Amino acid sequence: MRFLKPCCLLACALINAMVASVQADDLTDPTEWNLTGALVSDGRILGLFRESDHQFTDFISPMTNPVYFEDPRTLTEARAIFINHSLPSNVGGGSVQVYATQLRAALTENLSIIATKDGYIVSESPILNDGFADVSAGLKLNVFKDVESQTLLSVGTVFEIPAGSHTALQGNGGEFHLFATGGTEFLPGYHLVSGSGFRLPTNTTNQNQMWYWSNHVDKKLGCSGFYLFTECNWYYYMSSGNGLQAPIGGGDLFNLGSVGMAGDSAVTGAYGVKYKPGKNLELGVAYEIPYSQRRDLLQNRLTVDLILRY
Predict the structure, then answer these.
(1) Same domain, 79 and 126
(2) Are 285 and 302 contacting, i.e. CB atoms less than 8 angstroms apart?
(3) Other C-beta atoms within 10 Å of 308: how many?
(4) pLDDT truncated to tens, each residue of the chain (310 aa)?
(5) Strands in 119-278 per DSSP E
(6) 135-146 and 120-124 as β-strands: parallel, antiparallel, unpaired?
(7) CA 18/CA 33 separation, integer angstroms
(8) Looking at the structure, do residues 292 and 303 belong to the same domain, yes or no?
(9) Integer Cα distance of 14 and 31 in angstroms
(10) How many domains would you assign to the chain?
(11) CATH number of the domain enclosing 243
């Protein structure tokens, strides 16, 4: 509980500063924004966190595989996420709703803190109940950037703390996430973002080791602020566990430690639209379905996000 107060203060500071930036997008001096408690001074939130990298403002953030598919840019933002996740009939059917907020804060031009998993899970399924999700945080470093060609590459590491509820299939053990993510504008108005990483649990009995590869392609629709996009996610199970006595993978939101998973993989795909009226605001919706015969815990999923960016 000792960490709850500073985390709440940081979240409130980020959200207040970014709301102000949306309302005052044309102001050049952030010290004029008259934020409560002088949250922004010398262009930094709380004197620590700097503005997002606005040299790639035509990019949009990926939406699916939301905990692990990271935007390659150095960002300061608050991202609210709602997920309505339907489960296949072979695992009892029903649905799961997730309410979460991600936070990112730029420390330098190339280094940022990222908090990618938290929230609350509401279940209408026989295989899990309501409860809190695990909490994860780490660092992301931009290692290559070419503004002229609109190309960049970042790497990072995140640790997931098993602070979630066992009733919501969380809290099975700690997990390291090592990743690389990059993006480019490959044609005028067309963007590609690709990310890959390894999920390496500290307890391989209760959790599976996984390798994922996620891809996003979007097309900006003129000057309207709208984007159409498609995404594809591949999940490869590198190890079997002894947690769930059935060969059912947990995908991106869960890690079940299932038996008989080593060497198996699952693929999902999504289509969606985003509205980005300016550099500080994104609103998106995506619909995701399995592409592979293996469905694991996914029948279909609707994801909605709202990003306020500083």
Answers:
(1) yes
(2) yes
(3) 21
(4) 333 444 444 555 555 555 454 444 444 444 333 444 457 767 788 888 999 999 999 999 999 999 999 999 999 999 999 999 999 999 999 999 999 999 999 999 999 999 999 999 999 999 999 999 999 999 999 999 999 999 999 999 999 999 999 999 999 999 999 999 999 999 999 999 999 999 999 999 999 999 999 999 999 999 899 999 999 999 999 999 999 999 999 999 999 999 999 999 999 999 999 999 999 999 999 999 999 999 999 999 999 999 999 9
(5) 120-124, 131-132, 135-146, 151-161, 175-187, 190-201, 210-220, 226-237, 265-278
(6) unpaired
(7) 11
(8) yes
(9) 15
(10) 2
(11) 2.40.160.40
Say if residue 10 is in the same domain as residue 138.
Answer: no
Based on the fold, state whether residues 143 and 291 are members of the same structural domain. Answer: yes
Q: Both 64 and 31 in a single domain?
A: no
Looking at the fold, whether 41 and 182 belong to one and the same domain comes out as no
Which structural domain, as residue segments, surrounds residue 21? Answer: 1-47
Task: Work out whether the CA dihedral 285, 265, 87, 100 comes out positive or negative.
Answer: negative
Please provide residue 62's backbone torsions phi and psi, each rounded to the nearest 5 degrees: -60, 160
Q: Is residue 193 domain-shared with residue 160, that is, in the same domain?
A: yes
What's the predicted TM-score (pTM) here? 0.88
Q: Are 97 and 86 in contact (CB under 8 A)?
A: no
215 phi and psi angles, rounded to 5 deg:
-135, 145
Q: Do residue 3 and residue 109 come from a single domain?
A: no
The two structure tokens encoding residue 255 = 């890690």
The length of the chain, given as a count of residues: 310
